Amino acid sequence: MTNHNLKIDQLYEKANRHLWQSLSESDENSKTQIAVKGEGAWSIDLDGNRYFEATSVHSCLNLGYGHEELIEAATEQMKHLAYFTPAKLQIPAIELATKLSDILQGNYTTFFSTSGSEANEVALKIARQYHIQSGNPNKYKFISHYNGYHGGTLGVQNVSSTPVFKSDFPGLMTPGFIHVLPPYEYRPPFGNQTESIEQSVANYIEEVIQREQPETIAGIFVEPVLFAGGCIVPSQEYLQLLSKICRKYEILLIVDEVVTGFGKTGKWFGFMHSKGVQPDIVTMAKGMTGAYIPLAATSVREKIYRTFKRKGNQFNHFSTMGPHPVGCAVALKNIEIIERDKLMNKVSKQSDTILSRLHELKSLNIVGDVRGIGFLYGIELVSNKKTKKPLNDERISQITAACEDKGLHFAMDENVIRLNPPLISTENDLHFLVDTLTAVLKDFNL
Ligand SMILES: Cc1ncc(COP(=O)(O)O)c(C=O)c1O
């Protein structure tokens, strides 16, 4: 055995003993990729194999790996002030909160934390306290979507719909969380309707609110694209309809932009495709720093923040690493680069000219649906186009393995391939993605 192979075997042995890998069953023989380096949109493993990260590794890598300007921003901030208390002020946090209000195109105040889950926990708490402070103490229920994902910590796991994230922890769930089916055009929840699917789901939600009593509903959580749950892309009308319902019943519209924020749809935020919609609360994480350092944010409109300014209404959530100065400095640089390099225009253009080729896959028997906006794409695999029966797990594993052999990584949600390449992907990278996927799916066509 060579020294190199010995080193790899030792690493696997140590990992199997001591490192708890997320979402993987304990398996003594588990040998997943050991990444050692990243260049642009590609990760590189110990053997020097290169993989195009077509889902930006959990939708994080906005500007790819090895971005000198982000590294420099972090290094400079570390030299100046590596950390400070969230209970006082530091300049990167002030500037970032101001910049977020600017790009959200409204008057927003931001609470910083460290993960998408925590940003949504904070949103839950703020919404609940806001209603108490504004004379609506009975508003405690939250509506969210099946196929929605908002995080895995205890509060927001109530909001998420992922069944295994709940069923393994009996007794820890809280009442007051209501789920509704999303406007999933390929699998319409109410059969064929004359009105738009968005309208029929919105009508249904209004009916739910009436039956639950409007004075008990605190907020509606929604992702502009339900990415983790199969890349479901509602039309721009959906958020407009939800916004109208929220205004009518004094319910807060809480838009989770953890995946869709920072340019992935071709605009700063996914909600911006819906003209006239200004969410009450917006949550962000992942692409905000391009994953160079963890940082998350919960931005609230002035009408909410105002109620927390009154004496005795302090917000009692503390996140030690919340407005981390290094994270804030990196996020500011990330935003500056997206603006300066016109990356959102690039996303819209390359979506139209390159990723739109993915729609041609619909001619294959194995592909039931292709849907997308900007750089977010979902390809739904089926074993029978008529019945829409999902492709079986074994075949799906073979497809992902064949793509990995060719240097292509992406995330699946059950039978849906989810794509979300880094904003800095080159034209060649994106053609590689479409060509490789097309070749493999043709090989596996039924
Ligand atoms: C839409 C959305 N919200 C929240 C989260 C939770 O983020 P985190 O894993 O950083 O806690 C995720 C994670 O995938 C997500 O997709």
Explained architecture:
By secondary structure, the protein is an alpha/beta fold. The chain has two domains: 33-66 and 343-443, Aspartate Aminotransferase, domain 1; 68-340, 3-Layer(aba) Sandwich (Aspartate Aminotransferase, domain 2), CATH 3.40.640. The protein is 37% helix and 17% strand. It has 14 helices and 16 strands. The structure holds pyridoxal-5'-phosphate. Pyridoxal-5'-phosphate (PLP) is lined by residues 58, 115-117, 120, 149-151, 223, 227-228, 256, 258-259, 285.
Write a concise synopsis of the structure shown.
Strand 12 (about 375-385) and strand 13 form a beta hairpin.
Jot down its keywords.
14 helices; Aspartate Aminotransferase, domain 2; 2 domains; seven-stranded mixed sheet; 17% strand; alpha/beta; single chain; binds pyridoxal-5'-phosphate; Aspartate Aminotransferase, domain 1; 446 residues
Annotate the secondary structure layout.
Elements: H1 3-18, E1 35-39, E2 42-45, E3 50-53, H2 56-59, H3 68-80, H4 91-103, E4 108-113, H5 116-133, E5 141-145, H6 154-157, H7 164-167, E6 177-180, H8 197-212, E7 217-222, H9 237-249, E8 252-256, E9 281-284, E10 296-301, H10 302-309, H11 325-340, H12 343-353, E11 367-373, E12 376-384, E13 389-390, H13 393-405, E14 408-409, E15 411-413, E16 416-419, H14 427-443
Parallel strand pairs: 3-14, 5-6, 5-7, 7-8, 8-9
Antiparallel strand pairs: 1-2, 2-3, 4-10, 9-10, 11-12, 12-13, 12-16, 15-16
Helix pairs in contact: 3-11, 4-11, 5-10, 8-9
Pyridoxal-5'-phosphate (PLP) binds near residues 117, 258 and 285.
Give the domain tally: 2
| CATH architecture type of the largest domain | 3-Layer(aba) Sandwich
Percentage of residues assigned to helices: 25-40%
Structural class: alpha/beta
Q: Which range does the strand content fall in?
A: 15-25%
List ligands, each type once.
pyridoxal-5'-phosphate
Report the span from N to C terminus: 42 Å
Kindly provide the name of the CATH class of the largest domain: Alpha Beta
Shape: globular
